[in-house]
Write a structure and sequence with these properties.
609 residues; mainly alpha; 4-stranded antiparallel β-sheet; 4 strands
Length: 609
């Protein structure tokens, strides 16, 4: 018994087409993503296949036409059907594993703090039962692939079931968040005064369990409305963090506005609003389908997971992984959940059109450098407010650490801006400057962290320092050097070269082949009367003839090494328009070509833009 791979209906024996949907009965090529195009799948069908081939989709189905006869030898060969779990990428298994680990870990953490002490997640019946439902939802996809739900259940229904199974966890977090903000001033036994780290890990695990896997998403724009709801969930998590922070600020000023220091209240307000502001900013960029910003959000999620583990250390007070009504601050409580939502394969499907190649280092690193500049500026503003507050109170404790933080913050802010400004100067700068800035972040951040621990400084700026010390540098270096294509491009760049026969001439005239090995452009003009000897023996009249067709082909080929493009532009004027139109030509060389005043080159540059 065979089923249609597209609609799941039983096939007529020996038929070439499905009588229900007209799809060809021949088995298509397998791909790593499920391509049911919105239809149900049979229990034995491969869940990872191509969409209907174009030539088959336009044929007129004829259920009565008999199948062509097969040779006896071919008919005797058994055809092995693909397994139910074929085509599942490794990333789907990893996502399931991380979701299960986060949910299980949350059971051993503090769920809430109240007047009667700490409430462990495993001691609360509601938390345990709802966590078990989320854990069991991880098996829905595998049960469906094994054919337990029958041919009438399609992948869309499985997506809905997973989302529905994890909705109780999200609802539970919303209820407890509201209770922590409403009942924090009561001293009734069991009143929720603050949420604990179990909420951070559990909510992230539930969102990971709820989202469709890569192998469960139809190709193209077939499921775009369903994919968009994960962008809405990302916006919802950022909105929840923002509403919680606003409620904290309002309650703080209502309770202590006329009693406490205005400076410290301003500092608490700034830090409380800064945390969700970062999440909202990234979510809005992702809503505009920016893949570099989606990747930045995932990087922050991974980093926040690391910091959340550090926050479990009781003696480390630099990180806040809870929500307290009257103590606003820079909390990481919702950061992992935000990262889980923004990392969903459904979001990646929506932003893939704006994805940039790993070799485009400036576009890849721009979001991370913008975040580094924003966090550094926040460090500057926070330390400045603290300095003014301490000075106004007539105290001297904290002046030196906060002064160091102010100075380091200014350096790091300027470093981020300058790195963005000059990393496009030449290909080598696109690698060297961000790497150097990441090192500067790590070193200065580590110094600040040590100063904060030794001086027992306030924890307001602690999360910002930790993000600048560990998360941002790691994300910059990983984005720059982890992709193999990026590393290969860097290895192809010529090494920087000092003075030599082909370098700068102290006679006052640059050498004719001054296409420097550091990746910068050739000289702006090479005088036409320059002796041919300066260009080397290959430029003389006795040099063997060069096939201009081959040169033009090289000039237009995006795979041509950058050093070769530079050489062609310097020594073959007729090939310069092709170099100008080549998408791989780096900015410095384009600028040099634009300064030549060649109409053909200018036309190629205009068409490029």
């Amino acid at each position: 018994m065979k089923f249609c791979f597209a609609c799941g209906q039983q096939l007529v024996p020996e038929a070439r087409f499905c009588v229900s949907c007209g799809t060809a009965a021949a088995e298509p090529r397998r791909q790593p993503e499920y391509a049911a195009a919105g239809r149900s799948a049979g229990p034995g069908s491969a869940p990872a296949q191509d969409p209907i081939p174009q030539e088959s989709a336009h044929e007129e189905p004829d259920p009565q036409e008999p199948a062509p006869r097969q040779p006896a030898s071919a008919a005797a060969v058994p055809v092995k059907s693909p397994g139910a779990f074929a085509g599942i990428p490794l990333s789907d298994y990893i996502r399931d594993g991380v979701a299960a680990l986060a949910l299980l870990m949350s059971l051993f953490m503090a769920w809430s703090y109240g007047s009667d002490g700490t409430s462990k997640a495993a001691a609360r019946v509601d938390v345990v039962l709802i966590t078990l439902v989320s854990l069991l939802s991880l098996g829905l996809s595998y049960a469906w692939r094994a054919g337990i739900f029958g041919p009438a259940t399609g992948y869309r229904r499985i997506q809905d079931l997973k989302l529905l199974a994890n909705a109780p966890y999200v609802l539970m977090v919303l209820v407890y968040t509201a209770l922590s903000l409403i009942s924090a001033d009561r001293f009734d036994p069991g009143a929720v005064a603050a949420l604990g780290p179990a909420v951070a890990f559990g909510l992230a695990g539930a969102l990971l369990a709820a989202q469709p896997r890569r192998a469960e998403i139809a190709p193209g724009a077939v499921d775009e409305p369903r994919n968009r709801r994960w962008i809405h969930i990302t916006l919802g998590v950022a909105g929840l963090a923002a509403v919680t922070a606003l409620a904290q600020v309002v309650r703080y000023w209502a309770a202590y506005g006329g009693q406490g220091s205005t400076g410290w209240g301003t500092m608490a307000t700034l830090m409380a609003l800064a945390s969700p502001a970062i999440l909202v900013f990234i979510a809005l960029r992702v809503n505009r389908r920016s893949d570099p910003w989606r990747r930045a959000g995932v990087a922050l999620a991974l980093g926040s997971g690391f910091l959340s583990l550090l926050a479990l250390i009781e003696d480390l007070t630099l990180l806040q992984l809870s929500v307290t009504a009257f103590v606003p601050g820079f909390s990481l409580l919702f950061w992992m959940a935000f990262g889980a939502a923004v990392s969903a394969p459904s979001v990646a499907r929506l932003t893939e059109a704006s994805a940039v190649p790993a070799t485009d280092t400036r576009s890849t690193l721009q979001p991370l450098l913008v975040l580094a500049a924003g966090l550094s500026a926040l460090l500057v503003l926070g330390s400045a407010i603290t300095l003014v507050t301490v000075a106004a109170d007539g105290a001297s404790d904290g002046l030196v650490p906060q002064g160091i933080a102010l100075f380091f913050g200014l350096l790091l802010t300027a470093g981020a801006v300058l790195t963005l400004r000059f990393m496009g100067k030449d290909p080598r700068s696109a690698y060297i400057l961000p790497s150097g800035y990441a090192g500067l972040l790590a070193v200065l951040g580590l110094v600040l962290m040590i100063v904060w621990v030794v001086q027992d400084e306030d924890a307001y700026l602690g999360p910002v320092i930790m993000l600048l010390t560990f998360v941002v540098p790691a994300a910059l270096l990983a984005s720059l050097w982890q992709p193999a294509a990026s590393r290969e491009q860097f290895h192809e760049l010529p090494a920087a070269q000092g003075n030599g026969a082909t370098g700068f001439s102290f006679a006052g005239v640059p050498a004719a082949n001054d296409a420097r090995d550091d990746g910068s452009a050739p000289p702006a003009r090479v005088p036409e009367a320059q002796p041919a000897a300066d260009a080397g023996p290959a430029q003389t009249d006795q040099a063997p003839a060069v096939d201009i067709s081959e040169v033009l082909e090289e000039a237009a080929n995006p795979a041509t090494p950058l050093a070769r493009l530079q050489e062609i532009a310097a020594s073959h004027p007729t090939a310069r328009p092709a170099v100008a139109a080549n998408p791989s030509t780096y900015p410095a060389l384009l600028a040099w070509l634009g300064a030549l005043g060649d109409p053909a080159v200018d036309q190629a540059l205009r068409q490029r833009s």
